[in-house]
Write a structure and sequence with these properties.
Structural class: mainly alpha
GO molecular function: nucleic acid binding
Radius of gyration: 14 Å
Shape: globular
Mean pLDDT: 79
InterPro entries: Integrase_cat-core (IPR001584), Retrovirus_Pol_polyprotein (IPR050951), RNaseH-like_sf (IPR012337), RNaseH_sf (IPR036397)
Helix content: 40-55%
Order of helices and strands: EHHEH
Strand content: 5-15%
Low-confidence stretches: none
Largest sheet: 2 strands, parallel
GO biological process, one term: DNA integration
Distance between the termini: 14 Å
Protein name: Retrovirus-related Pol polyprotein from transposon opus
């Protein structure tokens, strides 16, 4: 939660159609946070290329943030 408090939660989360992303609990969580899911086309992995790159960038940013703050 600390990570998203300064910037807010994303408006959209792009994922494949894995059951962990389509489950009722995940949908309820998204509803509470006001997040809209966007699913890729099954079997068309190329459509996720830009999202995968963004995920890597976000992961790098989060890792730098964690390293900079230690065990607060």
């Amino acid at each position: 939660m600390k990570t998203f408090c300064p910037t807010g939660f994303p408006k959209t989360i792009c994922t494949d159609q894995g059951t962990n992303f389509t489950a009722e609990l995940t949908q309820a969580f998204q509803d509470v946070l006001g997040v809209s899911p966007k699913f890729s086309t099954p079997g068309h992995h190329e459509s996720m290329g830009a999202f995968e790159r963004w995920n890597r960038t976000l992961k790098d940013m989060l890792n730098k943030n964690i390293q900079g703050h230690g065990n607060e």
